[in-house]
Design goal:
The protein is of the alpha/beta class and 120 residues long. The protein has one domain (2-119): Transcription Regulator spoIIAA. It has 4 helices and 5 strands; from the N terminus they run E-E-H-E-H-E-H-E-H. It has helices spanning 23-40, 59-71, 86-96, 111-119; strands at residues 2-5, 12-21, 44-57, 76-82, 102-106. It has a 5-stranded mixed beta sheet with strand order 1-2-3-4-5, sandwiched between helices. Helix 1 packs parallel to helix 2. The longest helix is centred in the N-terminal third of the chain and has 18 residues, at 23-40. The protein is globular. The termini are far apart.
Length: 120
């Protein structure tokens, strides 16, 4: 399940993932909120947190993630990815090379540090 963090500045979208993330989570939560933020801000910042109870993405969620990332490739100002999942962090770093924005990887113990960095 995806949950929107509500303690961040307006141009920052904070998402926390727990359990198994599905395409439906992207279609009903993440994609609409990204589209809404982009109506107000030309570029947005994203904090994506894979919580301690995160168990993975289904195929549909992975495809939706790639689509939203590529559709708005130049709309990201900064991305903070917070996760203790080593393989996912490696994939995120690789994807970061395709982006025109700064991407930083944090572990779960650094969530508050990630929030501060993404909000600066």
């Amino acid at each position: 399940m995806l949950k929107i963090m509500d303690d961040l500045p307006g141009k920052v979208l904070g998402i926390s993932a727990e359990g198994k993330i599905t395409g439906s989570d992207y279609e009903t939560i993440l994609i609409p909120v990204v589209e809404e933020k982009l109506k107000t801000y030309k570029k947005i910042r994203l904090l994506y947190h894979l919580g301690i109870n995160f168990t993975g993405f289904d195929l549909s969620a992975m495809l939706d993630d790639a689509k939203i990332g590529m559709k708005h490739l130049s709309s990201w100002e900064r991305i903070a990815f917070v996760s203790d999942h080593e393989m996912i962090n490696i994939f995120a770093k690789f994807f970061g090379y395709l982006l025109s924005c700064e991407l930083r990887i944090f572990n779960n113990a650094e969530l508050e540090r990630a929030k501060k960095w993404i909000s600066e």
